[in-house]
Design a protein that fits this description.
The chain is an alpha/beta fold and 242 residues long. The protein is built from eleven helices and nine strands. The chain has one domain (2-241): TIM Barrel (Alpha-Beta Barrel). Strand 2, helix 1 and strand 3 (44-47) form a beta-alpha-beta unit.
Length: 242
């Protein structure tokens, strides 16, 4: 089921985090997945279909390491804009689903919308979103995704993509993630193992940043859980908004 409200990790106990990575697979995804596996951290990789179909071996290895593979659409569009323009919202998910399906071990497939773009603004110049999602309505009506859960949002980000755009060091980026995690107290962390913009892919240092961040979080006693442990409670809570 696709909910009208985003699913977050704000029901997690304080000191608990969930690692998620968007926009891959990228050049360093395999090394990143291996490192996390060695650290006994199971992450979720929300993959872009156009990249995933070129890196099926990476998906297979991530699955072997007990990471989850999630759907992040095929071409990374803003789904509200696509829906309002009459575009193929269903096709964006269905095309990626066919690619990732062999690498999904659980009954549930998790979905994250590109940019977190899910609901229209209540007014053209407003920062507030409408209560309902045109995207959720389209996807649920299609009947093609009975075992999907989404959209999965996040609670914490240090904006790694912006760090790489500005040539900020991996050490400073990790510090920003640590500060934000300490401020929020825990939840779903958003990172990117690749980039939508081709010019940023070669600058991506999220793998190195993760290797700096993990020991810092462990030293502070943080516990790491996989996304399926987070969304069970969040999805039940979201039925209140259905």
């Amino acid at each position: 089921m696709f909910f009208h409200r985003d699913l977050k990790g704000n029901r997690l106990p304080r000191g608990t985090v969930c690692f998620t990575y968007d926009d891959g697979p990228g050049p360093n995804t395999l090394e990143l997945g291996r490192y996390l596996f060695e650290q006994e951290i199971a992450a979720t990789f929300f993959v872009v279909g156009s990249e995933a179909e070129k890196n099926r071996d990476v998906l297979a290895q991530l699955q072997e390491w007990s990471h989850l593979i999630g759907n992040h659409t095929y071409s990374h569009p803003g789904l509200v804009t696509l829906a309002l323009a009459g575009g193929d919202v269903v096709g964006e998910l269905a095309r990626t689903d066919r690619i990732i399906r062999p690498y999904i071990s659980s009954e549930v497939v998790y979905f994250r919308a590109p940019y977190g773009n899910w609901r229209e603004k209540s007014q053209p110049d407003s920062d507030e979103d409408k209560d309902t999602s045109i995207v959720a309505d389209i996807l649920n009506r299609s009947g093609q995704f009975p075992n999907y859960v989404g959209p999965v949002n996040w609670d914490i980000t240090g904006e790694d993509w912006e760090c790489w755009r500005q040539d900020i060091s991996a050490e400073e980026c990790a510090r920003r993630y640590l500060v934000e995690t300490e401020r929020v107290g825990g939840g779903i962390i958003l990172m990117h193992d690749s980039a939508e913009e081709e010019s940023l892919r070669s600058k991506n240092r999220t793998m190195l940043m993760t290797k700096i961040l993990v020991p810092l979080l462990k030293a502070r006693g943080y516990r790491f859980v996989r996304l399926d442990a987070v969304v069970q409670s969040s999805s039940r809570a979201s039925t209140l908004f259905w």
